[in-house]
Design goal:
Blueprint lengths: L1 H7 L12 H8 L3 H13 L3 E4 L3 E4 L10 H8 L4 H22 L2 H16 L3 H18 L3 H8 L2 H15 L5 H17 L3 H28 L1
Antiparallel strand pairs: 1-2
Helix pairs in contact: 5-7, 5-10, 5-11, 6-7, 6-10, 7-9, 9-11, 10-11
Length: 223
C-alpha cells in the first residue's frame, strides 16, 4: 500500500529505477521479507518491471501484467455474457466517438491495416484475434488511457466473448460479410473523423451481437 501510495503521490514515477530493498526498508520501516513479498506482488500486476542487467523499474504498462482482477472477480461471481456486452456498450460506443475526434494519421493507417487483415484472414481463430485487436486499437486511439486500461483488465473475457459471439453469428455463412461490413463502417467513420457516425456504427455492431445472443438462447430454450 505504501509503495502504491508513493506512485499515486508522484514520489515514484513511470520509468524510475526502484529504490533498493535496503532503502525501502529504511523508508517504509518494515522488514526486508515484507519488502520482497510486496515487490513480487507488484511485479505480478505490472507496476514493477525487471530489465536484464539494469535493475527493477516502476512500470505502468498494463499490457505487461498477466493479472486481470476484473476478469477473475467476474468469473468468481458467476458473471453472464450479457454483463460483458453491456459493459462493451457503455465503454466502446463512446470510445468510438472519442477515436473519431482524436485520431491521428498513424491511427488511420493502423485501422486500415487491421481491416485488411480482417478481410484476408484465413481462419476464424485469426479473424477473432484481429477483431479484438481492432476494438483495442479504437480504445487506444480514443486518447483516454482509462478506457484502454479497463479493456485490458478484462482482456481474457473480451477475447473469449468475441470468439464466442463470432461463433454464434457465423453459424450463417452470409453473416461473415455482415461482420466485415460493420467493422468497415466503424473504421471508415472514425477515419473520416465523424463521431456521430462512429457511435451509430459501433452501436449497430454491438446490437447485432445482442440480437444474435437472444435468438440463440430462445432456440435453445425451445429445444
Amino acid at each position: 500500500e505504501q509503495i502504491q501510495n508513493m506512485v499515486m503521490t508522484g514520489v515514484l514515477q513511470k520509468g524510475d529505477k526502484r529504490p533498493s530493498e535496503r532503502d525501502l526498508v529504511d523508508q517504509l520501516g518494515v522488514s526486508r521479507a515484507s519488502i520482497r513479498e510486496a515487490i513480487r506482488a507488484l511485479e505480478m500486476i505490472g507496476l514493477i518491471e525487471s530489465r536484464q542487467g539494469e535493475g527493477n523499474f516502476i512500470g505502468g504498462d498494463i499490457n505487461s501484467s498477466f493479472f486481470e482482477p476484473l476478469s477473475v472477480m467476474f468469473m468468481l461471481n458467476d458473471g453472464k455474457s450479457e454483463d460483458i456486452l453491456e459493459l462493451r456498450r457503455v465503454i466502446e460506443v463512446e470510445a468510438a466517438a472519442l477515436a473519431a475526434t482524436h485520431i491521428t494519421e498513424e491511427g488511420k493507417v493502423e485501422l486500415k491495416r487491421l481491416m485488411l487483415d480482417l478481410k484476408e484472414s484465413k481462419n476464424e481463430d485469426e479473424s477473432a484475434k484481429v477483431d479484438k485487436a481492432l476494438h483495442y486499437t479504437i480504445a487506444k486511439i480514443s486518447g483516454n488511457y482509462l478506457i484502454l486500461i479497463l479493456l485490458n483488465t478484462i482482456s481474457s473475457l473480451m477475447e473469449a466473448f468475441i470468439r464466442d459471439a463470432r461463433g454464434m453469428i457465423l453459424r450463417k455463412e452470409s453473416q461473415r460479410e455482415i461482420l466485415i461490413e460493420q467493422h468497415q463502417k466503424i473504421c471508415d467513420s472514425i477515419i473520416q473523423e465523424n463521431p456521430n457516425e462512429a457511435v451509430e456504427a459501433m452501436r449497430e455492431h454491438l446490437q447485432t451481437i445482442n440480437e444474435t445472443m437472444i435468438e440463440l438462447k430462445e432456440k435453445q430454450a425451445i429445444q
